[in-house]
């Protein structure tokens, strides 16, 4: 989760484009079955002008490109904020085995807050979930952004 937090908030003066600062700081890291980092993603909706450019989606796409496979079985996605319906759906479709998230998102969260997409028994794949990991630190990054 500390790695995901670092991805969410690049250090001041880093190579991140100025526009990236406009994006809500959410970071995601995708780890392979052996624990090796495969891909990272940061929310880039403003930067790319793409409504689907959430941190999780970008990490999943990059991981699939890096491994050459859309099935990410055995992989773990770590993200600083509870995924939305789109991202929760995407990680089910990608067969991600484990989801770890930080802060809860009561307004749009789809991993227990508002919906529970990843534990819907009607779906054929349900990742294991670890919620609220470093939740206070993850929420603090978001609060600082909106201040
Ligand atoms: Zn999302």
Q: Describe it for me?
A:
The structure is a single chain. By secondary structure, this protein is α/β, with parallel strands linked by helices. The chain is 31% helix and 18% strand. It is built from five helices and five strands, in the order αββααβαββα. The protein has a five-stranded mixed beta sheet with strand order 2-1-3-4-5. The model has no long low-confidence stretch (mean pLDDT 93). The site of zinc ion (ZN) has 6 residues, from helix 4. It catalyses: adenosine(34) in tRNA + H2O + H(+) = inosine(34) in tRNA + NH4(+).
| Largest sheet strand order | 2-1-3-4-5
Strand content of the residues, in percent?
15-25%
Termini separation comes to 23 Å
| Coarse structural class | alpha/beta
Q: Report the total helices.
A: 5
Strand tally is: 5
3D shape = globular
On the 0-100 scale, what is the average pLDDT? 93
Computed over alpha carbons, the radius of gyration is 14 Å
Order of helices and strands: HEEHHEHEEH
Q: Spans of 5+ residues with little confidence (pLDDT < 50)?
A: none
Sheet of most strands: 5 strands, mixed
Helix content percent band: 25-40%
What bound compounds does this protein have? Answer: zinc ion
């Amino acid at each position: 989760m500390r790695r995901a937090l670092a991805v969410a908030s690049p250090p001041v003066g880093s190579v991140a484009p100025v526009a990236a600062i406009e994006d809500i700081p959410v970071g995601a890291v995708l780890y392979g079955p052996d624990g090796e980092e495969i891909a990272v993603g940061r929310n880039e909706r403003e930067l790319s002008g793409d409504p689907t450019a959430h941190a999780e989606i970008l990490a999943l796409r990059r991981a699939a490109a890096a491994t050459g496979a859309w099935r990410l079985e055995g992989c773990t996605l770590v993200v600083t904020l509870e995924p939305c319906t789109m991202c929760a759906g995407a990680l089910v479709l990608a067969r991600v085995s484990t989801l770890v998230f930080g802060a809860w998102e009561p307004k749009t969260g789809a991993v227990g807050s508002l919906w529970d997409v990843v534990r819907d028994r009607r779906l054929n794949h349900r990742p294991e979930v670890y919620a609220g990991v470093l939740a206070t630190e993850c929420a603090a990054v978001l609060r600082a952004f909106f201040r």
